[in-house]
Amino acid sequence: MKTSDFDYALPPELIAQDPLPERSQSRMLVLPRQGGALQHRQVVDVVDILDAGDLLVVNDTQVFPARIHGQRTDTGGQAELLLTHRVEGGPQGETWEALMKSGFRARAGIRLRMAEGAVNAEILETMAAGRVKVRLESETPLHDILEHHGEVPLPPYIRRTGTDDARADIDRTRYQTVYATSRGAVAAPTAGLHFSDALLADLEAKGIGRATVTLHVGPGTFRPVKADDVSGHEMDAEWYALSEETAARIRATRAAGGRVVAVGTTTVRTLETVCAEYGEVVAASGWSRLFIHPPYRFGAVDALLTNFHLPRSTLLMLVSAFCDGPQGGGRERLLETYRCAVAAKYRFYSYGDCMMIV
Q1: What is the largest CA-CA distance in the chain?
Q2: If you write DSSP's letter for every residue of 251-296 in order, what string do you get?
Q3: Is the pLDDT assigned to residue 92 strictly greater than 70?
Q4: In the chain, what are the domain boundaries?
Q5: Among residues 243, 247, 184, which one has the least CA distance to residue 216?
Q6: % of the chain surpassing 90 pLDDT
Q7: Which CATH superfamily is domain 67-149 in?
Q8: Across residues 27-48, what is the average pLDDT?
Q9: pLDDT for residue 165
Q10: Residues sharing a CB contact under 8 Å with residue 175, sequence separation 6 or more, in sequence order
């Protein structure tokens, strides 16, 4: 299957630049998985669409302010680090993998002064695609420095000037789910951004359960598929954890005839990673490199709430696979749905509207 098969046209003005005033105000395009007409609904209607006994599974990862700026200590050249995950830590500092942008060529041994001098950094190793391994040393805990000096790593299609403090404050709150508790992501699991505390309470009151998994979303979620053939793409590894409590609730829900409803593609990847490795949903943790694209047989997920995704992205390919019927056709059906969403002027991507596939 060709990567170009997952292309579509999107007017730039439909890329949402800001969240709506209220989380659950978003529109929701409902796509019946087994066939049927599209429905134009609101996110709050998820209470009516789901049944008592269904189980909502969410990703509780928490985005941290992972982007810091600084300079080379010798030349003053500007540098930016996007910290992706910690390799090791100790009293003498922490070692991280990071994406680096600079006006100079990165190489081992270069020293940097970051976060207005609060962090001294040394590049230990350079890797592919702009990644580096870097040692960070500071007098105060790095966590506190990032909270004060770090920036929320918004996706590249959300445009910010870097001088709008009011917008930055809103992003810190709204580019985060209300149930985020497990710090470690550099991108939000955006389907979860639509849920307010009030909507979650309404779901609970109806008898719709909620369970959590963790998948720390990395920058690879925005990396386009550059291979001409889909099979030539390799996923970046992302750390996940699925607890015994959540595994037991999923097994019990399906045994009782309820639906497992994944909130977002990251939740799908977590559950399907475990199914692919163990043959069923069990407690597990590790690194996921699972690339879901048509055709794919899902083992754990019955319904999906998801945002609209970029052309040629692994996320669009996953949703296409989820839309497949017995004879396939999920890609064509999904792209036709996207054309309808464009015509109806839905808002796209992280701060945009969403789809419910049931």
Answers
A1: 65
A2: HHHHHTT--EEEESHHHHHHHHHHHHHHSS---EEEEE-----SS-
A3: no
A4: 3-63+173-357, 67-149
A5: 184
A6: 91
A7: QueA-like (2.40.10.240)
A8: 96
A9: 81
A10: 19, 63, 152, 154, 188, 193, 350, 351
